[in-house]
Design goal:
This protein is α+β, with helices and mostly antiparallel strands. It is 42% helix and 20% strand. About 26% of the residues have low confidence.
Length: 538
Amino acid sequence: MENILLNRYEIINHLGTGGFGETYLAKDLHSPTQKRVVVKSLKPIHDKNRSELIEKLFLKEASTLEELGENSKQIPTLYAYFHHEDRYYLVQEYIQGKSLNQIGVISPDKCKEILLSFLEVLKYIHSQNIIHRDIKPENIIIREKDNLPVLIDFGAVKEKMGSFTTADGSIVSSVIVGTRGFMAPEQGLGRTVFSSDLFALGLTIIYCLTGKSPMEFTSDTLTGELQWQDYIPNLESGFREILEKATKIDIPSRYGNAEEMYQDVLTVMGEVSSLSMAMASPIIAPTQLSSPSDTLLKTQVITPRVEDDNLSDSSSSNFLMVVMFSMVVFLALMGGFFLAQPRQDNQVVVEETEEEVEEEKDSPMDMERKNTDTNPREEENTPINPITEEIPEEEEIDEIESPPAEINPPEEINPNPPIEETPPPDTTPVLSEQEAKQTLQSLYSYLSAKQFESAIALYSPSMQSQFRESFFEEFDRVTVEDLRITSQSSQSITLVGYNTYYYPDGTTQREQRNYTVTTMDGVPQISSSQFLQVTKPR
């Protein structure tokens, strides 16, 4: 590739390789400030039909950026689009900042802020009948100048219900584009919907909370949904439920649009904000600190003491007036001996009252100490004594930045995990258990809905010839459940499970079958299906 394109864009370095081409950082020599820009170059493709299709996708990215970038400050601006020496190029705004996968683990509060801001972007994109189709941590950059999330890489965008017509008249209604793990199951079938973006966004936020890609989680054997909740057990229930709903396998169970999800996030953030304002200052103070040990010291020494002193002064003044009044009365009625005795009694009452006030003020502290002790890191250190020099080992364990690799909890809490641990899942070709199960569940969803063309597309070519549409016409619906793996390789997974056939008269029959799901051209397909036995006859 030339070092300078069109005598204007000087290539500085290579940023990355995508599905369709190369991305470079360059500077605009015609700009007064020689501002930095991103230059994308489309790879030459020798297959005529495929080349024509990819070129149209590339052109669509340019036109989409031009339209969307003008109306949203969280989408890069398109500067130029041109054809040069048998290659297509586009030039767009360079976003200075870090992507979510570079940042690593992020706190729940910050994740909610990012999610809320990003949903504003999705609301706008979807309002233009555009589906991004490739939302993932690498494609969301937190811009340095304003800390806003910016959505990049519109190479996979798809207009809802859009299609492409090639030169020979062939119509391509969909192209399977996306990133394995973050891609919704229906997207792998070429049936992308708006909630496919919400599915990927939910998994992206889960990645930010846990530091783990979707491929690293196990999945529920009945529903196929990812089991990520145990990695962040203290996540507030409202936020957890939002992420669970966004990442449902079943499309109708998900959020229908970005606005619904946005409103739920607003509600959760409002509830947390109100709760925080209602709490006493000892509970709020620790959120401003980075170390659990510092939090305990801060709440025990600083925050309660100010309030206790005020209460003690007020109580002392009131009781002093009572004591003075009592002294006058007793002097007049009982004489010097009786005057001294009540004064001592009143001093006892004052001291006891002050002790009660201190005990009452300490109770939220005790509650917070209990809450803090439930942290997995704190449970490892039963005798918490972070400032004692004689116990250096406990000080090291209490440090958030402690690097032991063999302990799982620190990997969840550490705000800056090693960047190199996150990229591999995006390039790995291994077929996951989740993808295999999702493929089978999608098959029977299509069969039950009598969408036979979509169902056939899930089979390998050899299996498609064996498909009998008339057989499935006999049933109201067919389900698959209790799927479990019996053998697995990098490209193929064999599972055994149960089918339940629902007849129009209300009767059912349950059978056991095994399936083999194999990756073909990067797409999971059912390459084998065998009947084993009837476990519950009709």
